[in-house]
Structures are given as structure tokens and as C-alpha cells.
Write a structure and sequence with these properties.
With about 120 residues, the protein is of the alpha+beta class. The protein is built from 2 helices and 5 strands. It has a 5-stranded mixed sheet with strand order 2-1-3-4-5.
């Protein structure tokens, strides 16, 4: 399991999360980085920020938000590396060739995630 975690971190470290509406949702890095999507004190990792997937009431974090990775039927954010979409950040694998679960990615990069 640790080896798999290291591989995911190495492959996705520095990627950018981009919502389907074009809004930047942070960088895939550790919680120490200010731009990180897992930094609970930053604009992209705070549960209170409008640009955070962790805001359960926002359009990017709600289970009903069109652009949220937690909406099974929505239009989830892309994981982008060097301008290329490499995966979708989503709880649903329907219609997505490469799906990455948001809570799993958060944990791999240091976020304490509740079920």
C-alpha cells in the first residue's frame, strides 16, 4: 500500500485541479503549500472557501454541486499536468476513463478526511 501511495504522489504531485467551468481549484501538493487543495487554511483547501472541494455547501464541494467531485452525476474537476488532462477527480467512474476519488487523493497528500 505504501508503494502505491508513493507512486500516486510522484505521478500527481504538482498537478492542478480545474473545474469544468474553468475555475482553478488548487494544486495537488502537500498541505504545507499555500496553493494546495489539502491546505485547510488556504483558499483551495478550507472547508469555508468558495473555491474548495471540501466546502460541503459550495458548488465545488456539495454532493449536489454541478462541478463537485462528490456529485455522482455532475461534471467533475479535471486533474491537469502540463496542460494535459490526466484524470477526473470524482466519486463516480461512470463515463470517465481515469477516475480518482477525491477523499483518497486528499489522504495521500496529507489531508485528514472523514467518511
Amino acid at each position: 500500500m505504501r508503494r502505491a501511495r508513493r507512486r500516486v504522489r510522484a505521478a500527481l504531485d504538482g498537478a492542478v485541479l480545474v473545474a469544468a467551468d474553468g475555475e482553478r481549484l488548487g494544486t495537488v501538493t502537500t498541505d504545507f503549500e499555500s496553493e494546495s487543495f489539502v491546505n485547510s487554511l488556504g483558499a483551495f483547501g478550507s472547508e469555508f472557501s468558495g473555491r474548495s472541494i471540501w466546502n460541503q455547501f459550495g458548488k465545488y464541494g456539495s454532493t449536489f454541486g454541478r462541478y463537485s467531485p462528490f456529485n455522482e452525476f455532475g461534471d467533475p474537476p479535471c486533474i491537469v499536468i502540463d496542460g494535459t488532462v490526466v484524470a477526473k477527480l470524482t466519486v463516480s467512474a461512470i463515463g470517465t476513463p481515469v477516475a480518482v476519488a477525491p477523499k483518497s487523493l486528499g489522504m495521500i497528500f496529507g489531508r485528514k478526511v472523514e467518511d
